Structures are given as C-alpha cells and as structure tokens.
TrEMBL record:
Keywords: Membrane, Transmembrane, Transmembrane helix. This is Uncharacterized protein. It comes from the Bacteria. It comes from Shewanella violacea (strain JCM 10179 / CIP 106290 / LMG 19151 / DSS12). The chain crosses the membrane at residues 35-54. Residues 64-75 have a biased composition (Basic and acidic residues). Residues 64-89 are annotated as: Disordered.
C-alpha cells in the first residue's frame, strides 16, 4: 500500500513540475556576458590552483635533491675558502 502512495506522490510532483506559469522575469543583455565571465574565471582559477598544487608536489622531490646539492656546494665552498687562505699566507 505504501508503494502505491509513493507512486502517486511522485506522479503528482512530476505533473506539478510540468506546469508552466508565466515567470515575469527579465534578463538584460549583460547577463550573458556575466555568465560567460564567471565560466572563464572559474576555468582560469582551476588551472591556477592545479599549477600551485603541481609546483608544491614537484618541490617535495626537488627539496631532497637541493638539500644534497647544497651540502655538496657548501663543502666545495669551504674547500675554496681554505685553499684561498693557504695561497694568501
């Protein structure tokens, strides 16, 4: 019995949704351009967000490399300083 009542409610809602009443609404010519600008802005912000996340993701791997390289470069620069001091004296 409950299934029958649910079916009647669904059919009633479907018929109610198909009724067309005058909306008395007005869309000015600028509405289309505003919608178009919103779509473009959403796409551009999506690309910018993906780019930021991608850079952060890549920096996770680059930081490990750069730590090893910075240690290597610092040891090389210390050798240069030591050899320069030895050459001056």
């Amino acid at each position: 019995m409950e299934h029958h009542q649910i079916g009647i409610k669904i059919i009633s809602l479907a018929l109610l949704a198909t009724l067309s009443l005058p909306a008395y609404a007005y869309l000015d010519p600028g509405t289309g351009s505003i919608i178009f600008q919103a779509i473009i802005a959403s796409v551009v912000m999506g690309f910018a967000t993906i780019r930021l996340w991608w850079d952060k993701f890549i920096s996770l791997f680059n930081s490990r490399k750069s730590d090893k390289e910075s240690k290597k470069q610092s040891s090389e620069s210390e050798e240069i300083v030591i050899t320069d001091k030895e050459n001056k004296s």
